[in-house]
Amino acid sequence: MGAKKGKKGKKGKKKGGADTEPSPEEKNFIYQAEIESLQQKLMMESQRADVSKASENEKRHRELQLDKQLKDEEKRTRDIIADMTRQYKSMFEELTEKINKLEREVVDNDETISDLKEQYEKLNNEKLEIEKAKNEEIKELKKRIDDMSSDFAEMLRDTLHKMQERIEIANKQWEEENDANMLKRFEDMALGNKPN
């Protein structure tokens, strides 16, 4: 059926003829329809352009905001990096100073320990020398005491021997003197004379 209609339409054109032009009113109506169609198209394109422009403006605005955010973030990151770098340098300097100080203390302590060891060895050697000298002195004194004891014992023996000799002599003399005195006294007593 559709094909038949198409043929009729063609036939109608043939009937109407190609020579017949539309009237000015029809032309005016056609042009008016075209103008309205074009105006509608223009409006649609204008709306589309406005939407596109608004979208582009929004896109640019978002890009500017993102760019600003990115710059702010970069600045914040740079500030954080600068602050962390400063803190790192400060901590590194402090740690380096502490390490140097501790190393100096270790060197000083090593020197002190070395000095104390030398002093200890020196004092120990002096002590050993003093002990040796004292032991020699004690040995010498013991020898002298032994010698003096021997000499004293010998002297006591000699003194005792001499005292015994003197006592014997004194006893002998006393006996001789007393014997003579006693005889004289006895004689005096026998004669009746009083003793002196």
Keywords:
196 residues; mainly alpha; 2 helices; 93% helix; rod-shaped; disordered N terminus; cilium
In short:
The protein is mainly alpha-helical and 196 residues long. It contains two helices and no strands.
SS-based structural class?
mainly alpha
Put simply, the count of helices is 2
> What's the SSE pattern?
HH
Question: Roughly what percent helix?
Answer: over 70%
**Assembly status:** single chain
Our Rg estimate from Cα atoms comes to: 77 Å
Largest sheet: none
Strand proportion, as a percent range, falls in under 5%
Instruction: Tell me, rounded to a whole number, the average pLDDT.
Output: 82
**Low confidence ranges:** 1-17
Q: Report the strand count.
A: 0
The tally of structural domains comes to 1
Shape descriptor: rod-shaped
Terminal-residue CA separation:
216 Å
Protein name: Dynein regulatory complex protein 12
Subunit structure: Component of the nexin-dynein regulatory complex (N-DRC).
Family: Belongs to the DRC12 family.
Function: Component of the nexin-dynein regulatory complex (N-DRC), a key regulator of ciliary/flagellar motility which maintains the alignment and integrity of the distal axoneme and regulates microtubule sliding in motile axonemes.
Topology diagram in text:
Layout: H1 2-16, H2 24-191
Coiled coil: 85-180
Keywords: Cell projection, Cilium, Coiled coil, Cytoplasm, Cytoskeleton, Flagellum
Biased composition (Basic and acidic residues): 47-71
